[in-house]
Amino acid sequence: MDVLFLPELGQFALILALVMAVVQALLPMIGSFTRQPLWLAYAQPAVWAQFTLLTISFLMLTASFLLDDFSVAYVAANSNSALPWYYKMSAVWGAHEGSLLLWLWILAGWTFAVSLSRGLPVEILARVLSVLGFVSIGMMLFVVFTSNPFDRFLPRIPADGADLNPLLQDPGLIFHPPLLYMGYVGFAVTFAFALAALWTGQLDSAWARWSRPWTTTAWAFLTSGIALGSWWAYYELGWGGWWFWDPVENASLMPWLTGTALMHSLAVTEKRGVFKSWTLLLAIATFSLSLVGFFLVRSGVLNSVHAFANDPDRGFFLLVLLAVTVGVSLLVYAIRVPNFKARVSYSLISKDVFLLANNILLVVACITVLLGTLYPLVLDALGKGKISVGPPYFNALFVPQMLLLGVFMGLGPLTDWKAMQWQKLRKKLWLSAAITLVLGFALLPWVYDGQWSIWVALGLTLFFWVMTTSLRDIWEASRGKQGWKGITRSRWGMFWGHVGAALIVLGVTMVSNYGEERDVRMAVGETVVVKGYQFTMTELTHREGPNFIADRAIVEVRNSQGRLISTLTPEKRLYVVRGMPMTQVAIDWGLLKDIYVAMGEELSEDAWAMRVHYKPFVRWLWLGAFIASLGGILAISDRRYRMRVASVPVNAGKTE
Amino acid sequence: MTPKRKQKLLLISLMLGALSLAIGLTLYALSANINLFYSPTQIAQGEAPQDREIRAGGMVVEGSVERDPNSLKVRFAVTDFAEEVWITYDKILPDLFREGQGVVAVGRLNAAGELVASQVVARHDENYMPPEVAEALKAAGQMPDHSPFQRPAAEQQY
Questions:
Q1: Signal peptide position in this chain (chain B) (predicted)?
Q2: N or C terminus: fewer CB in 10 A for chain B?
Q3: Nearest CA to A542 among A529, A552, A530?
Q4: What is the pLDDT, as a whole number, of residue A75?
């Protein structure tokens, strides 16, 4: 049967793609040293070939999944003939090997997109593509030598697959990893731009303008990927939490923090020609942190919900890859960065300084998270005992840092570049400050449950401060000649980005302070009251799904007046192939509150231990993240990124 | 001082200030929030402190799980096959909690030497044994030969 050869075809395509990556990395590099335009010109076709080949490879793996080819070890380990087709498709990236192939394919896709960008001088484009080629080579060697998804399992072909991990049998799997990888890998493009700048020694505002849309796009993907992951964890794991300070969550948060800093620092570099070396360092750090996350997840040093089954060879290979990437890029940085001194002055009250403060806070926050994540690993490696660093550590440090960051988030947009008089700034700020203090700090914290608490007050203060200053900024922008129509898309992008952040703060504040979680014993016919709501279990039934059997409870929820507001049907499923139990929660969701019921354990014939959660405003934190991502997309659609601008340093004369 | 120097000074002092504040807070927070792992043997020998949160774990002893009929209270023993320690818990046990499987609990020891747990963890994976537990078993010389988590790779998958 022809079908049987698909995996080999995929493997050949993968190896050919590796060869193309070598061409893409080396020829432009040699061309740039020998000044041969022809060699530089090899970069683009090599990219196209690599992308095509990886697409073929990826399709072949997908086809093997859809056709239930259990002779492929990876398919046999992660699929089953009873799995619905859409989970067969997303099972492609449901475990280590396949998700690596997705990673590579996305990298090739990004590279392809860069190769199509117009207005980029060929000598810079070729260098950017060359750097991306090197990244691709490293990762592809890793796949081919340690994690080949096309490995056969011969001659004893299993009759059926071991099934996809039930936790992953959810629409969340379809979107969460691709979005996240789009973010991680997207930062490789900024990284490549940074190395190309170091390589050519040319770093002007044109360079910053090329880098910005790529960075912002990657950031938007990463933001929505993280938010989606948080949402998925909330309804899938059955614990009702939305952030656990799990090492792997931290691994995604770290590049997000430096990436956010990078986005802002690039703005300064473009507009003012300063912070150049800082921007470059951030670009290197952000991609390196993406790789650190990659290492943490796949090397086996962590144990978490996310960790893949792994072996030490992979960990070692990744560590070497990480060391080479960080080592080489920092070496190049150290040698070349003295070329990028800027002689531009700015005063204490200026957008430049406030953005710098924002950058420092974000980087400090990143270091805090890094320390908390790596400390247990380091101690363990030194044989000093097994410790764990809990959420209180992260909360105690991260929350104050974010509060401080919020102050600058309000100040930044309203301040002028270079210098601004305090009196002028004060005029713009007083109304926001007054509204914030009166509503956010003093009045509104009383509303929800009649008690003032400092954490609610601080959270709401932050929310109002960022909202009112953002509104003020967009209102000022609308006072130009063309009114509201004259506001650029990047301005709107910033507005929605900041509004999204404010909404996240609102959601986090409300759900952390007013949420209620109770584990209760619930028997058929009994009523339990949580936060004024009456929960009555009316029935316990069974249900059979396509690849699982389930105990299902029917729970009626009534409000304090006794009116029925919803009927929830949580389930406890047993996925038969793996014999693995899963909690399927039931949520009555709303903008103001979620009511969340999950089945815990069976206590007797007619009684179960149940988790009942009341989560006010929890949706706002994901909504805020998606709004912020959309803000990012809006910003990159700004016309000025599409205009062909010759690479003339705007700040010529200011640069040495 | 030239404006440029002033700027640099400002920049450097800002960074140093933020950094030292961050390091100070970090060390404080770390020291207050670290949970050390103790094996049942270590607890039996009195090595574990009583006044702070610790983690403890091992295999859940077969037949040791006792439930209170009217509430969620549950009591069970974990072992490293050398010593046992009792754990009490009044919340919902994780899906993968089972007799004979490895678990890790976070909590405080009471005067009777029982661990009053605030959290019990078992991973969402059939082949899982918490690494701390695996090591505690090895230390006690009781690592089972044919434990599910040590199956050879090929067998592990099918």
A1: none
A2: N
A3: A552
A4: 92
> From CA A241, how far away is CA A307, in angstroms rounded?
19
**Over 50: is that where the pLDDT of A408 sits?**
yes
Mean pLDDT score across all residues of chain A: 88
For the residues of A183-221, what is the DSSP string, one character each?
A: HHHHHHHHHHHHHHHHHHT---HHHHHHHHHHHHHHHHH
Identify the CA nearest to A437 among candidates A458, A414, A452, A409: A458
B27 and chain A in contact, CB less than 8 A: no
Instruction: Decide if B36 and A387 are in contact by the 8 Å CB cutoff.
Output: yes
Q: Which of A347, A456, A447, A350 is nearest to A408 (CA)?
A: A350
Q: What pLDDT digit, counting tens, does each position of A516-525 carry?
A: 888 888 999 8
* CATH of the domain spanning B37-122: 2.40.50.140
Using DSSP's 3-state secondary structure scheme, residue A267 falls into helix
**DSSP 8-state assignment for residue A416:** P
Asked if B30 lies within 8 A of A303 by C-beta distance, the reply is: no
Measured between CB atoms, which of A393, A401, A600 is closest to B30? A393
Measured CA to CA, the distance from residue A53 to residue B24 in angstroms comes to 52
The ipTM, to two decimals, is 0.73
Residues of B in contact with A356 (CB under 8 A): 11, 14
- Report which of residues A350 and B132 the model is more confident about: A350
CA closest to B38 among chain A residues = A386
Considering only A138-142, A549-553, A641-645, B72-76, which range has the smallest mean pLDDT? Answer: A641-645
Q: How far is B112 from chain A (nearest CA, A)?
A: 24
Q: Tell me the fold of A1-164.
A: Four Helix Bundle (Hemerythrin (Met), subunit A) (1.20.120)
Contact (CB, 8 A) for A293 and A306: no
| Chain B CA closest to residue A369 | B26
B9 touches chain A (CB under 8 A): no
Considering the entire predicted model, what is its pTM?
0.90
Q: Is the pLDDT of residue B130 over 70?
A: no
Q: What's the confidence (pLDDT) of residue B98?
A: 82
How many CB atoms within 10 Å of residue A81?
13
B127 vs B72: which has the higher pLDDT: B72
Task: Please name the residues between 163 and 222 in chain A that touch chain B, using a CB distance below 8 Å.
Answer: 165, 167
Contact in structure between B71 and B81 (CB atoms under 8 Å) = no
pLDDT in tens, A47-57: 999 999 999 99
Q: Are A400 and A363 in contact (CB under 8 A)?
A: no
> What's the pLDDT at B142?
64
Residue B124 marked in a binding site? yes
Interval A15-27 mean pLDDT: 96
The β-bridge partners of A388 are B35
> Which residue among B14, B33, B132 places its CB closest to the CB of A390?
B33
Residues of A in contact with B9 (CB under 8 A): none
Nearest to B10 among A348, A364, A610 (CB): A348
- The shortest C-alpha distance from A559 to chain B (Å) reads 24
Per-window interface: A 390-429 vs B, CB < 8 A: 390, 392-393, 396-397, 400-401
**Which one has a higher pLDDT value, A645 or A236?**
A236
